[in-house]
Protein: Coronatine-insensitive protein 1
Amino acid sequence: MGGEAEGGERRLGRVLSFGIPDTALGLVMGYVEDPWDRDAISLVCRHWCRVDALSRKHVTVAMAYSTTPERLFGRFPCLESLKLKAKPRAAMFNLISDDWGGSASPWIRQLSATFHSLKKLHLRRMIVSNDDINTLVRAKAHMLVSLKLDRCSGFSTPSIALIARSCRKLETLFLEESMIDEKENDEWIRELATSNSVLETLNFFQTDLRASPEYLTLLVRNCQRLKTLKISECFMPDLVSLFRTAQTLQEFAGGSFEDQGQPVADTVSICCCT
Structure:
């Protein structure tokens, strides 16, 4: 009797675990966002692994050389968000050689060709060339809502202007601490202000980019959803018009004050509550 009961419980457990309809299983997995929980789910059985692969929306690749774009697409063909990291943290302190690697080109080519649902891309400590950005914009400009070039290098302001002009659905543009070759001053901000009305976050904090108060004010005026603005150095007294114009701005960082004719090097952060 005891053996039969135990056998019945095992059969019932298998039915409850593996007899869930795909539709219901996919809906449930949609609420599981923690990557560790997702990994555990994918190990239950091959069927659950396939459902996880088709329903996974975000993946973080902690080391870009740990896999290939082809393998990632084969495993998760429906990704909407991807975060890639290349160079180790030591690169921030000039502790690795310039020829270490970290090129985003292989990833950009594959992402542009195959990841048909991709809407958010975060590249961290990678070398992103102007050609990479051109390729990405040609393929994804109509659907990108978030682009983060985080501590990246290799591109210039004309490429940023191309992003601003072409990606009209872009809600987040993040360039913090990136090394950018500035060739056209701040024309990219004017492009962003005149081409995008849905922008919510713009961050070019701790970069060499410069922004005129006039273009920043135009950006705030035209982008009615802008909540976060983090800029490089700019004298705070020149931004009075910007703050008077801002209606939805909640967070501001950057800028500098002037003390007896000498600029103060420390940046400031101001929280603007509406």
